[in-house]
Amino acid sequence: MNDVLYINGPVQNGLFSIAERPGKAAGIRAAEALNTLLGAGPVPHLWNTVTLAGDLRYREAPDRDTVGRQEREERAIAAKYAPGAAPAGGVLTDTAPVVVALALEVTERLLQDGVLAVTPVAVRLCTRCGHMSGAVAHACRACGHQGSRPHTRRLLVWDRSPGTPVLARDDFHAHRARSPAHLLTIAQNVPDRLILSRTRDHGISLAPLGLDGLVLDPRAGVHIAVLAAAVQSNAWQPVMTVTENAAANVAAYGALFRRHNGTRLRYALHGRIPYDDTAMLQRLCEVHRVSPALRELFLAWFLPLCSLHIRAGITEAQLPGLLKFWRRAHLARPDTPGSDVLAELRRRVVAGDMRWVMDARTLSWAIPEDPVTHGFAEEPEGAS
Predict the structure, then answer these.
(1) Which of 56, 89, 143, 341 could staple 42 via S-S, CB 3.0–4.6 A?
(2) Given CA atoms 194, 195, 200, 205 in this order, what sign does their dihedral have?
(3) Is 162 exposed, middle or buried (0-12, 13-18, 19+ CB in 10 A)?
(4) Which residues pair with 230 in a beta bridge?
(5) How far is CA 76 from CA 14, 79, 80, 203, in A?
């Protein structure tokens, strides 16, 4: 098995293309760049299809009687890539058969071990559509209706002992000095009982466990998708590239699903990339006489890697300096990489130490020769 493999945190399959919103691919691009440096083979791009927004879109679709939900999700994902240029590692969704099988296997084991339980829980149901809103009454997120009624139903729950952590420093694949203290603080405020079953039209059905009409909480499902991708790639240390906001939302619900048969999932945090101001980026490249190929590498390769170092997010004010730095590093790129430098680079990548990205000499050895396209749909004229 490989020691470390980077895998993107599943991207929500919304109404966008990567050409329109390239920031959505930051985790995918960063993971591919790091895996290439490690000499790993292609890894699938992961997509999150279990969303309430997806349920609502499907309910309102005029062709829902002829196009099933799974097919609709697959079509939407395929449209995000250029024709005939699907990713080399394929795509994997959080409802793929291999993910569903692994999710049920892990959940059944946790039930047998007494970690999880199926137990009656008092919740609120929307009086219009029946959507389960949880224990507190509020407007229905599925239909917007204000009314709800109390109901007791059997749910999949994790009752933690007081003080049991859902997130620890070693859950992050990072240099020891860069553990995100604020995320650890957020995790300390998670309720002692977590409900791991939800009402969704699409997802990992819990009917085999006797919970008809319920699916596994999608925040747990995205972790299972990463584990499944790791198993397929024979990797036992998968690293999920994810934003801090996403990690804060999903970490607690994935706490029981970060380990399986010796496989251990960790997070690599990355920040936002300001791709939106395309005119400014174009002007920068023109001023610095950056070729289209070098521009593509800067946008699709260097900035995603840089976002793993600047986890608070890259600002527009930083872009001119980063472009100058990138250009200098590219000009210094040697013809033949030194084996000792590459070995040290790989050691740092395996350790989760991304400080090398801002070391011009080390970066120059890592730069690939060709533009990075990743199979995404081409950008419209004038976009970045």
Answers:
(1) 89
(2) positive
(3) exposed
(4) none
(5) 8, 5, 7, 16
